[in-house]
Amino acid sequence: MKIQFQCGGIALWLCAMAHAHAGTPAQTCEVAVTEAIQKARGRNAQQVRFIAPENTKPAQTPDGAKVKGQGRYQGASGAMPFTYSCTVDPQTHETTGVVFRETGVVSRPVVEKPWQADLTHLSPEVCEAAAAAALKEQFPRVVNIMLEAKARQLKPAPGGHTYLWGQGKLERAVGMRPVAFTYRCELETGSGKFIGIQTDLVE
Description:
The protein is of the alpha+beta class. The protein has 2 helices and 12 strands; from the N terminus they run E-E-H-E-E-E-E-E-H-E-E-E-E-E.
């Protein structure tokens, strides 16, 4: 059997004994292509995967079923896409003319930029005003809301946002004992836009 490897525009012809694999022509071709990729790339080719539906519709030719398709394998530097073709004898299930061609740049995993606290566009006063408004709505008779500036903390939030945590004390009505509360304010990290506020009493 002649096996042709075409990688980066360079064709390499290898001669080997034909292998017969039971199954559909597409499955037989996939096995042969997997062997060809692993032989050409060695241990650098892992998790060879094939993409339907093109590889499931072989064309009939005088030499057998012509199978074409595409897939990708996991290389040392990331996922590498490829196209492939081969011809499968419907009687013997032998493959000939196995060709694969790497078609793109290695797909490297996207590394998210780590969150960093940045006060350039963040306004603690916006969060404190929102916390006070939320408490007044929850306790209409509230008096003496006291916010502790030294207790503020910035923490990462989902979606690249920022949480500003804080705490304070309030009197829910005249004559009631003061109780502690915490608040969590969500802001857009880049613009400082206010997203939302959450308050909780600490009994």
